[in-house]
Amino acid sequence: MKKTLTLVMALLLTLALVLTGCGGNANGGATPEPVTPTDSGTDPAPVETGDDDVIKVGIFEPLTGANAAGGQMELEGIKVAHSLVGEVLGKKIVLVEMDNKSDDVEAVTAAERLVNSEKVDIVVGSWGSSVCIAAGDTFMNAKVPAIGTSCTNPLVTLDNPYYFRVCYLDDFQGTLLANFAKQEGYKTAAVITDVSDTYAIGLKKYFVDAFGAENIVAEAQFNKGDQDFTAQITSVMAANPEVIFAPSGYAEAGLMMKQAADLGYNILFLGADTWETEVMFEVGGVATENCRFTTFFDADAAPTPESTQFLTAYEAMFGGKPKGAVTALGYDAYMVAIAAIEKAGTTDGEALQKALTELDVTGVTGRCVFDENGDAVKNQAIIKTVQDGGFKYISTVVVD
Amino acid sequence: MSVLKTEGATMRFGGVTAVDNLNIHIENNEIVAIIGPNGAGKTTAFNMITGVYKPTSGQVLYQKPNSGNAAMENITGKRPDLIAGLGIARTFQNIRLFKEQSVLDNVLIANHVRLKNGFFSAMLHWPFYYKSEREMRERSMVLLESVGLADHANELATSLPYGLQRRLEIARALATQPQLLLLDEPAAGMNPKETEDLTQFVAQIRDDFQLTVLLIEHHMQIVMDISDRIYVLDYGKTIAHGSPAEIQGNPDVITAYLGVEEE
Amino acid sequence: MALFWQNVANGLTVGSLYALVAIGYTMVYGILRLINFAHGDIFMMAMYFAFFAISIFYIPWYIAIILVLVATMLLGMLIEKTAYAPIRNAPRISLLISSIGVSYLLENLATVLFTGVPRQFPSIGSLQNSLVIGGVTIQQLAIYTPVVMLILVALLLTLINKTKTGMAMRAVSKDFETAKLMGVNINRTISSTFAIGSMLAAVGAIMWGQKYPQIQPYIGVMPGLKCFIAAVIGGIGNIKGAVVGGLLLGMLEIMIVYAQPGLSGYKDAFAFVALILVLLIRPTGLFGEKVTDKV
Amino acid sequence: MEKNKTRFRGIASGLTKNKRRNLLLSMIAIIALTVFLHFTEQGATVGSYEVRVLNLCAVYAVLALSMNLINGFTGQFSLGTAGFMAIGAYTTSLLIMPVSVKAKVFYLEPIVPWLENVHWEGNFGLFGALLVAGLITAVAAFIIGFPVLRLKGDYLAIATLGFSEIIRIVFTNTQSVTNGSTGIKSIPNTANIWWTFGVMAFFVVFMLRLMKTSYGRAFKCIRDDEVAAESMGISLFKHKMLSFVISGFMAGVGGGLMASVLGAITPLLFRFILAYDILLIVVLGGMGSITGSIVGAFLITTAKEWLRWLDAGFNIGPIKVPQIAGLRMVVFSALLMLVILFYRRGLFGNKEFSWDGMFRLIKNAPKRVAAWFKPKPKGGGAK
From the CA of B184, how many Å to the nearest CA of chain C? Predict the structure, then answer.
């Protein structure tokens, strides 16, 4: 056993050295890849090299790790879109999946690999902001535009002309939720925030700004991975808020609502787009029926030509309805990417970037125009709730 | 002049009194033995003297080398490394060499306590550091030479035969430049020939290094041959004290110890 | 005042869950002197077993619980046989690394086998219903958990003090080599220790899942660490200590947030701070026995 | 190939017989590495993806050395590396970030005034920042060391892990200093391949020297037998602390380099799981081997990238294995288990590389390979 292992290790060592040390050879080292390696020259410029007859779209998503659920849903949307539009500029489109593992270090290497080894022409993704923030510079330096799907943090596109996104931002969402709460007649609110989640603290800030800091009667925090919120709930409920705003991940949201109900509190929970996964009501059970959250898209909202096309194609490919709005965002991001290539007429990074800034398309999640930061100027959000073990559409809020 | 003195040193573990009211004194350049059946508290006594255990009550007094007629210092419960620094070195009953290191390194490290240059001068390889490192090596080689281990200097300590490991442990203790050497059953597991060599060796290092030796031993041969005085412990209590001849004739000792163990 | 008692109730609920899981930790440590870093992950696997048994195969919960206990027990024994037994005589540090390795492997394996998507833990009976007593809301679970815990503690103490296996366990914990010489079957004793430890983890997992019905591959990490801390606070190796340690830790976490809501963001750090304080002030914990190194 | 040889040249000295040959070989290796680094920096050898992997290899090597010093050489099982890295990474980032970028990145809550206008530019800036990062981390290690170094074995492991988590939780909550969970982005990528390999080379030389001094020997003695070491006059606490503080310094510098290489950090990056990754490197390479840590770091880091095909689905002969996300990490954790169970001493044990050792190995290789395959003549070729 020992000997065999020694042998395995020796082989591993040799392989690793081949990869790192002998990089001086012509072909960039032996990096076995799922997709045939492109015939790269010594020039690392991201201009079309190698195969002229395919266009490569990189998928930068968390397929494993904490956010795998979100990543997988978006991947479905991208695949649906790809099944509809598989060709642009007369060339076949190839999807290159790259797992960023929901991990910032992995994300950067994954991004490097997409732009430098796979030489993709444009990138779609990701679910979650921190991986996008980490990888953003890589895409920018390589001049490969990236279309963010559901990365809602302002920092993603900040100072990065090559990062765009089809979702709305935390400020839009936070403000919208605050306005919704006010419209519904709520005067006081408590906030329970996941301090270890950048998305949550962003939302909290904009919600508090819009709702009025003086109307926030209590605040509490927790950390990702926490399972017990009874202390936080009990402490904020002592201030008698009319509604609790709880920007957090879906699993935490489910647990929190369940525990609030177990403690005998009957209070409305407000949240945002991350809540829209089945896990939320699976974990939280009936307690989650007392919630409202914003999202990007809903199959039950008034149909548009785009959404009908999307839903039909989804049904054909995966059966049923999409599990979450982010699937629609994945779809839209891909469509935006293809539209940009079409408009630019080339896959040159700079031309694509320019094309994206001028783009005006209507997707499943509404009209999509990019502002000077590269953020989609969205005008609609959807409010949903949970009912009878499923999500239920409540209303579409259009902001102008 | 006493080098070491214990005054009513007592060690209790929970309900068990391992050493009860130990009063010993060791004069300069003497070889003193502590004997007694297994579990009599001999090693515990060593551990109290070297600071591994802090006595439950009583104290340990020690006369530092070259301190003239100054009063003895109370070293009760001091940290073992500080006690080693004061000039008390020891060996262990169940050999505790640094297993992963060479014979030479084992001895070299014992010089560390006398090292005068600081960490930064060592890292920056200042001339002073080279000098002290060279001196250390020379001293250690001389020491290995004197215990007959020079040929094994670069071998792994644990690769030595048992008898030589015992010697190496003594050499290591000597490298700390002690005034008082504590040997914990140095002849354990040795054959008669090795035992005889060891007897001579202990007597010889006492003379060569101007040492005072405190010894725990089961081997009556050694004890009777080289000890100036003997303390006998049984169940933690000192039951007899005197010259080898006196001890041999002491009826208490014979019943408690010699009568039990055939040696 | 009701608020205060509500927090006390919350603290006791959390604390008794901590205590329940801490018993398993402390038992394995008490006998083998090994911190089983994988304990939290065995806990996680038990939750998945329960999920598959009840939610996927629709086995009635009272049968499923037995299956889960047996499966977790087998898993624990398998881990012991493959990862700990071969290096039993190696330095302790190797055992520790091995247990970290097992923990890491189980987490990654679970990610591959069950995906990272969180699942819902099936609810059992009426445990989730709440009672209101004098303005304080208590889940039935909060009443059952201490009961289950006390029964387990009683069983465990009987096992250890009254049975032959228990005697062998105590012998092994005192001195490995001597126990072997005295004819104790070391392999079987250690195996049964792990089996029981894992079973305790499974019981803990089922009760935990009632309160926090969420399963994902990393779910065992935090409970694992916190219950370990609870065991250390009580004096690791001491079963009563684990119970007290768990209750104390649970109360501490809840009461600090109650007294200082501004500190709620630091809640996870409380346990670690408590751990370090205990190790500083009383390294053997509240009930731990003093261990002297043999020289 | 040449890189791995160079790093251990120090060990070759002192051998009279083959001294000249060894010196020559070492010099060739150093020159070859320098030339390679030069062209790599120019972008002539490998693409930027490979450069990033190389950078990470070197950073992980520094971190592995840090962990190996305290765990492998001093025998104190500390799992606090991730926390120390966090301190180093945040210190470095906050010092080298341009003022304007800071204002933008701290968009939720403005940065504290005393950090607002700090900007240490360029290579000198990075040097100063890494130094300060190392020192602050060393001070943190010193403070943490006081309570935890009184503990041993598993208790020490848990206590250091606890401190690591406390550091991370504090960083998550101190929004106006660390920007909380949003993390910091647009950290200047000043640390190029010269920096990473330079720092690594510096620490390799540092460790080689340290281990040759009396202090290094004292560390190893503490690892082998604490009681004996103490009886030989070695102050356990002082030396453990020294080792812990140096280890902290290295982890801080390593974290700082990592921040500059990655360009963006968040507190979640520094979960204690990160320490497991480094532990894997140290164990695989060999606890107590400098060579081992370096080889381990390069091996694991490149293999982690190389094994991406495991996640993507592959074919074993006619059987098609579908895409299994996460399989790669299973392989890695299984590897850690296999190493610890069957190959406990790792690749190098506590030995170091030497030219003589290598020549001996090459000379004996045919015999050893033959011996391997004797019972099973049907084996694959191993070069």
Answer: 11
